Amino acid sequence: MTVHLLGPIQLEEEVERLIEWLATFGKTEKGGVTRLLYSEQWLSAQEALKEKMEECGLAPYFDDVGNLFGRAEGSSPSSKTILTGSHIDTVIEGGKYDGAYGIIAGLLATHYLLKRFGTPKKTIEVVSLCEEEGSRFPLTFWGSGSVTGRRSFKHIQKIVDSKGISFVQAMNECGFGQERFRQPFRNDIQCFIELHIEQGSVLEKKKKSLGIVSDIVGQRRYQVKVVGESNHAGTTPMPCRKDAVAITSELITYLMKQAKQVCDQLRVTVGKIKVEPNVPNVIAGEVVFTIDIRHHEEELLEQFCSTFSRHFKNVSAQYNVDILLNEWLNVKPVKMDQQLLRLSKEIAEEQNLSHEILVSGAGHDSQMFGTYCPTALFFVPSHNGISHSPKEYTAAAYLESGVKFLIHYLYRLAY
Ligand SMILES: [Zn+2]
């Protein structure tokens, strides 16, 4: 059964206007946005959003880490909260849409539902999560991690930013972290719904308006050190060498070849490499390089990693050199909720909204929520797939169709 909730309503202008408005907090000369956690721009944005939430008929409040919520109380007293939103912080010189769009979309959708249908049965809250990017302090997902209990004050005690300001001091100066607000951990969340820009180009290339995320990839990161022997480039015969660069090139070639064979969804990247002594006429004595590996199935990740580390051991024995492998990050893949996924497809089909089921290669707050409560993540197209840049852009028509989709979605969940 098709539900016509919208009639001729136009949201295009409104959603663009609000995106531009939020981008004024932290606007840079290059046209980008820099809104780092607990900065002046960050605080002004959260306070302005609080007022905006009130104008939209929501009851706003902060928690003690600076997450901002706007609550539309449901009529059913025992109902848990349907939470929707995203993060307010940006990277340095980021774009207007990353994070911000999910908050604006939640706000517009809830405002529309309240005006059109009044009090929902179940409580809806729009959230502006305080931090996701890790751009000021070396810690990510502080907002969603605090709500879900994956992060707590013990994780931030020794952390400082690049200027030497401590996490705790920055937080306190904004008024948070002193128990003046409610504790961030929640046990009353029914589900989390996040709308985000794709930050890739799949949707644009396929001319689809909406991406429905089935899985968020797991990630493993390694640092590899190849210890060879530094020697004269002219006098050392080829068979006598322990050339760290030559061995490294074999390792990387192996990785890339394997990656292509195993699965086209697997992503393997060697993005950083350091050679010692890095001199043209000296055989390299040492190479340090990184490996970033992503896939949405834990089993496949595990198998790929154990296969290549076995191979590295063999190469180490073959050339009689040390190859030291250090895994410093291991994040498990997260599945989005199957029931919510079915509902997503159903609504997209009802609304004749062109859509694509896809895997998210980046984290997002949904990664935190996904192991804590049923979670759904949606993408709208990013022009040329560009993000974390002033060039980040999503056409107004896509912004609007995303909000309309969210209206239908929240209606089905809350009314
Ligand atoms: Zn984001």
What can you see in these coordinates?
Strands 1, 2, 3, 4, 5, 6, 14, 15 and 16 form a nine-stranded mixed beta sheet that branches. Strands 7, 9, 10, 12 and 13 form a five-stranded antiparallel beta sheet that branches. It contains eleven helices and 16 strands. The mean pLDDT is 96. It is α+β, with helices and mostly antiparallel strands. The site of zinc ion has 6 residues, from loops.
In short:
The protein is α+β, with helices and mostly antiparallel strands and 415 residues long. 34% of the residues lie in helices and 22% in strands. Strand 3, helix 3 and strand 4 form a beta-alpha-beta unit.
Q: What are the segments in which pLDDT stays under 50 over at least 5 consecutive residues?
A: none
> What ligand molecules are bound, each kind once?
zinc ion
Number of helices: 11
Class inferred from helices and paired strands: alpha+beta
Largest sheet: 9 strands, mixed
Instruction: Estimate the global geometry from the Cα principal axes.
Output: elongated
The percent range for helix content is: 25-40%
- The run of helices and strands is HHEEEHEHHEHEEEHEEEEHEEHEHEH
Could you give the count of β-strands? 16
State the end-to-end distance.
Answer: 16 Å
Tell me the fraction of residues in β-strands, as a range.
15-25%
Radius of gyration: 24 Å
Q: What is the mean pLDDT?
A: 96
